[in-house]
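On clarity, I found the account of how folds are encoded harder to follow than it need be. What matters is that the chain and its backbone geometry are given together, residue for residue. For the editor and my fellow referees, an illustration may be useful. For illustration, here is how one protein appears when written out as sequence plus structure tokens:

___
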Amino acid sequence: MTLAITGGGTGGHIFPAIAVAEALRSARSDVEVIYIGGAAGREATLVPLHGLRFIGVPARKIRRTASPDTLITLVVLFRGYLQARSALRRLGASAVLGTGGYVAAAAVLAASRLNIPVVIHEQNAIAGRTNRWLARKAERVCITFAASAGEFPAGKVIETGLPIRQGLVSPLTRAAARAQLGIPEVSFTVVVVGGSQGAAAINRVVWESLDSLNRDISIIHQTGDTEGGPGEHVRDAGVGSVYRSRPFLDTDDLAAAYRAADVAVCRCGASTLAEVAAAGLPSLLIPYPLAYADHQTANARAVAEAGGGVLIPQADLTSARLAEELHALKADQTRRQRMADATRAMARPDAAQAVAEVVLRCVRDANGGRT
């Protein structure tokens, strides 16, 4: 049985798709998962690294306002649709899962025209434009946050949570995770993650704060490809605390960083928040202010209202505020434990399996109960 997954542009669309692909392959040994993504998107590099067959099609972002460029975009998207339709027909796909991004529109519309069952997964508390539009073509819509349910057709919605990749919940003890990363075992430790593309504003404040923070706090910092930073860097303050930065942490080191940390400082994309919840970490939540419909603030608000984190608008984030919040959390273990319990309660460790089961159920329904 061949199943297709599509989504791209950002890690928020790509990584949940990869997680469901892993769950589908674990659930059924006879399943082949193909990934239809943008030929020039980040998924073209990331997806093959996870052992998935990748089919690249043309994709281009649609701008909100019409311009001479709009016609070019429509031509590109139509070419993507034709190529996706050809691939789905040639490979005999039994179902398509779309996780968002403009490339998902091509594959989902092609599947609909071929009468192939479609499932959509929406990551955020405020649904994206593409997913809202494509939901009309879908048999089921899986959501992460209950707040987004009203944006989709009644009767199609299933709350599954956000799929995260295998291996992001580390089996290591905290001491072993800290040893792997070169962090002192007794050090109060903070992990800083700006999402798959980094976060220049957060990075800048962290770097400005190092002299005050790094005296008594260890920091593991995934910077992304941000100019002006130290790149891969280690700074030992000589007092039992270390600052370690790297543009990207691989899955093993990111899982170890979550396990090693006492607190997370993070952007508020749904994937990052799901990873932090799975790790059971209190968090300082700094939403990206230019995200579509300010959905990162809505995501962060859900965590903050549950008691798992402190929401800090980017405009309010200064080196003094960061130091104040981190030192307050360092001094109050009871508060940290309360926040950790709250965020852990939001975790859905079975989300990938839940979405995979929805996809397989749609195949069974389409085939009269057979798969």
Q: What stands out?
A: The chain has a mean pLDDT of 91. The chain has 13 helices and 14 strands. The longest strand covers residues 32-38. The two ends are 8 Å apart (CA to CA).
